Amino acid sequence: MEATRGFGIDIGGSGIKGALVDLAQGQLIGDRIRIDTPKPSTPEAVADVVAEITGQAGWDGPVGVTLPAVVKKGVAHTAANIDHKWIGTDADALFAKRLGRGVDDIAMLNDADAAGMAEIRWGDPIARRGVTALLTFGTGIGSAVFQDGKLVPNTEFGHIEVDGFDAEKKAAASVKDNEDLSYPEWAERVNRYLSVLENLIWPDLFIVGGGVSKKSHKWVPLLDIRTPVIVASLQNNAGIVGAAAAAVEGIEH
């Protein structure tokens, strides 16, 4: 019988969030558990928090985990907004050991890829046609690109150079907070970033997500670019939902 529930954990630069997910609906079951990302955010410290979240939830099945990193075959190859000790870490093995699971019970994914997979499956059907780029605005900027619903894994378009700067250093949601920018001021930066990106990949659709998507009415209408922009239907829970699905279905990249 196909599993209808899964557990996903989304590791971010500021918080680690986990929840039980109804995979038939693509929705959280109950409240999500959130714990601040430890400082320093070493692999061992983060693994302790992930174990605490699964323990609080009483979940003993497969676990999907996202990282703000390029993840290939369970190994982290970059570290954006987490400790650089993650680079080269076999995250599959780390979490399997810490959670007392088999390696096959852990699914590791890039955080934006997980969010994008959830949006493609449970979000607006228009996203399944043509080239769709999901962008998560949080501590950094994550990207996930799809061609007719099929993921091109581990794109790092949050780090393209825009006007001499790494894009996320100017347009991430954390920058808005750190520099005390108004929504119009920040939207201008996002607009500039999206205009550069759309000229590189010519997408048919942008989906914007991350924590700031909850306030999308304050900034999305201010964007003035060629490509249509919609807001992630799962908002900041998309990564959790995508991770849970990946764990149950054994998806890794």
TrEMBL record:
Keywords: Kinase, Transferase. It comes from the Bacteria. GO terms for molecular function: kinase activity. InterPro entries: ATPase_NBD (IPR043129), ROK (IPR000600). Pfam families: ROK. PANTHER family: POLYPHOSPHATE GLUCOKINASE, ROK (REPRESSOR, ORF, KINASE) FAMILY. Belongs to the ROK (NagC/XylR) family. This is Polyphosphate glucokinase.
